Amino acid sequence: MLHPLLSRPRALGPYLALWLAPGSLLGAARAVVVPGDWRPALAITVPLCAIYAFVCLGAWYPALANPPAVGPTRVVGVQLAAAGTAAALWLALGRWWAGVLAGLLPDTPRVFHDLLPLLATAGVLFWLLAAAACYLFLARDAAHQAERQTLEAQVLAREAELKALRAQMDPHFLFNALNSVSALVATDPPGARRMCEQLAGFLRGSLELDRSERIPLGKEVALAHAFLQIERVRFGDRLRFVSEVDDAAAAVEVPPLLLQPLVENALKHGIAHLVEGGTVTLQAKRRRDTLYIIVDNPIDPDRPPSPGVALGLENVRRRLQATYGERALVVVETRPERFRVELRIPLQPPAPEGPAAAASPAPPPGGAGGEG
Amino acid sequence: MSEAPAPLRVLIVDDEEPARQLLTELLADEEGCDVVGECRNGFEAVQAVHGAAPDLLLLDVQMPKLDGFEVLELLDPAPAVIFVTAFDQYAVRAFEVHAVDYLLKPVSAERLHAALLRVRQRLAGHEAPPPAQALARAARPGAWLDRVLVRDGEKVHVVPVARVDYFEAQGDVVLLRVGAERLRKATTLNDLEKELDPSRFLRVHRSYILNLDRLAGLELYAKDSRVAILKDGTRLPVSRPGYARLRSLL
Q1: Does the predicted model carry a pTM greater than 0.90?
Q2: CB pairs below 8 Å between A and B: how many?
Q3: SS3 of residue B137 by DSSP
Q4: Complex ipTM
């Protein structure tokens, strides 16, 4: 792994500028302690510190090779040895540089000699500081990684939960439909064929939806229609349905098979208990940043809502919450003769993010859908 | 069986038209079967059994108003029964109420034929029809009773228990007080008590089970003797054990 500073070339400039501070300070310290010509000291310390800036980048590699896990003794030992070596090399370089400068400022070698203890201390200290910075960076990196792993684990868990909660088709629907086909074969062969086609279409559609993560609501509505068409053969005139779906709502992407359990409930716990049947109303509309999906059906006032209904809805509720969090709602309204479920799904929060949100004009209030 | 037996009188009960069609059609191919009627729900079935006196019911389970088991509960004695349903989870219950057979949808001709043979065997054996009412009750799965069925001649009342103010024993029948209405059901208070949710219905007296929702107050009426005042002002006697039960519950 490359030193983090080297992988960010833009950070190198500020880093070097930072090193000018100790360079100037060391020179200035000498000038304060020994008044006189201040130039030789600065001529030594400023370039040396600039070079040491690069040398100290080397602290990264022993740090990488000896992560905190190896134990504090080893970490400190290795870095102290490295610091000593680096400082020694640095001072050798400084002596050479002082020799070079002697041509210009004859005082320089003497000044360097005076500075030697200070420079040796600074050399070791700076290296250790650089090493500490590396460890800090490594620790922060590890924390980030752990956080990312936690997040990934959460996402995986959520996906697993969604998979587990995925609506399962009621097999009795199939058995009943096949029974109807069996009846139609003798009395109405074209009807039997039509029903086989519808059944195949519905099965294919629901398998396809089951495989997708998100689907436009319109697709799910189409599937619900196919389902209701098949059930109409069974229920005859007892089953009537009305569907009011805004174009804006049909385009919204939702988790698959949210609507299907609601429609199944409406038949199983509503229409099926009524001698004269009734009308299932399906509505989907979009108001500002919320999608409303409403299924409303008549119920038999003498038949208390069975526990199965609550169970199916709990499943829908948990799926919604796994996807949208607490902002998604399942609102159930039971009146003596009607049962109404409303799903409220928040659309993606930042408005400019979703082009559909910006493009589609808000439908006039009180348009397609009535209030309760 | 050398002589052709008398034709079997069959009543078909199913709320779905295609399902009735299929059974009619399959029965047309069976020898010695007369379809004497088709019913679209439990109410019609109860009436038709009285009118047409069939030997055999082909009975769906899930139907509007009265389900198949509730129909049986109202028929005493009941004809032979074959349940026809898409659901296999009722099978155990079906045999507990002495159904002859249990057919799964989609219905096959072979399976129906075999079931009809069993019906003929059972009828030929002059087996006494089982007391369907008691059995249907015995077979009710765990849950408390949520509605009471009352047969009144040809008419059937389905009364949600929540609407009953109290039950009163009167000789060999139980009187249901539902608002201003009084309905008579052929059962005993002891049997009913076992089926009613004890947190909502309490035996306050040898002759009364009270819907606790209706209780407005208690009044000391004589030493060791109390009356329950209902919200509509009705006063019911409360026995000493009844009062003890009431106190432990409230």
Answers
A1: no
A2: 68
A3: helix
A4: 0.70
